[in-house]
Amino acid sequence: MNQLPKDPVMMLSYLNTRLRDFYPSLEDCCKSLSLDRQDIEDRLAQIDYRYDPEKNQFV
Known about the structure:
Helices cover 53% and strands 7% of the residues. With 59 residues, it is mostly helical.
């Protein structure tokens, strides 16, 4: 698994940037970076962010 920032706000920024610049979906991002999607969604839910597939970002 790639090293994601441990701080959830930094993780949010990192992932939204990757989604915006490189990946058409969270699924593609997770596959490419060998990330556990459920773990990411759970961690960002702790700071009240959810993935919006229409916007392709956590909001």
